[in-house]
Amino acid sequence: MFETLLTYIKRHSESSLSDEDIMLIKKSFLFKSLKKKELFLEQGKVCQYTGFIIKGATRQFSIDASGIEHVIQLSIENWWSVDRESFLMKAPSVYNIEAWEDTDLLVLSLENLERIHSIPAIKEMFWQMNQSNFIASQKRLNYSISLPALERYEEFLKHYPEFVQRFPQHTIASYLGISKETLSRVRNKYVHK
Amino acid sequence: MFETLLTYIKRHSESSLSDEDIMLIKKSFLFKSLKKKELFLEQGKVCQYTGFIIKGATRQFSIDASGIEHVIQLSIENWWSVDRESFLMKAPSVYNIEAWEDTDLLVLSLENLERIHSIPAIKEMFWQMNQSNFIASQKRLNYSISLPALERYEEFLKHYPEFVQRFPQHTIASYLGISKETLSRVRNKYVHK
DNA sequence: GTACGATATTGACAAATGTCATCGTTCCAA
DNA sequence: TTGGAACGATGACATTTGTCAATATCGTAC
């Protein structure tokens, strides 16, 4: 159950893990299982955990004034799922996080995060994760202000080909900030070009 | 010259700075002065420094296939200016960073960053900066996929009122991902509503 | 097995935004 | 001081994208 997480930590840090480190890590995470459509985080509540996905997939979305859902983030195995703002500030979240498949997570409270932060490999891992999250987010932003729908979709395909298999098209459309009809038409253009 | 930076560090960390810490910090930064329109980073080159702005303003932008500039980031005093991807990966940047006013910076190389990273307050400061950068970037993304032009502008005004005084409208339009003409019209609507 | 809901496609039309051209103003540099 | 570049506003029109409705398909819960 912890193998995925430990492998992830090793791949994202320079320092190695002692046996005590591993013990501490195992004590600090909780196992959580969600059925499809179950909520990991509900709008208005504080995000209590940051979750490492062992199996399954989640989507994070906001609901605007007209009741329309906007997908902010998609995550699958080996990704973290959390609303960082709510989690770190202990503030009510404006987002929902929903399991899109039956999903298994290892979750970590803020207190336990601070506890295992004493482990160098953990610190490095989170540091690296922060950096790459920020870089990815800046890239997505760049695309969203500078590319038309078709090219945004092509970039998405290039970066996250697995996601196309795992999430329905209207979810991906929302992630890209376009309507599902536009994505459908754009895919047609893409196939025939 | 270092007061601004030291104040910033204190405000963004819990640990305090010893005199030796301050010495090390002062040794690790270089002073850099840019005239208006001068480049801090040029597309295709590696971003050698992360810069803390003491005075002035910068804009980070990409240039697309049609030669059109897209503003990714605007920064003023007390902000950091850097292309993090290029800086951390030592990879050629796809962005330019230009001084929009005469600008004074304290800049830090990656090697020196690693050196002062031994100081707890510095580590905490960068950690917090990373978190809030990511949160801000996620928020901007949320707005860019879920709000129409007028509301995007209103959010911008609410979050960054100073920026409206410091940057020309067409720069802000580009930052928001809309054309300068649309922003001009949208502002008219905003004033008269 | 069937019925229903979720998904995806398509057409007709509407709305938002972009593009191009023009003009007036301001501001800075020669 | 003045001329030109940068900036911003506006009109006419094009393009992109969204909205709404109809339909087909597929999977799945009962």
From TrEMBL, chains A, B:
InterPro entries: cNMP-bd_dom (IPR000595), cNMP-bd_dom_sf (IPR018490), RmlC-like_jellyroll (IPR014710). Residues 32-116 form the Cyclic nucleotide-binding domain. SUPFAM superfamilies: cAMP-binding domain-like. It comes from the Bacteria. It holds the Pfam family cNMP_binding. This is Crp/Fnr family transcriptional regulator.
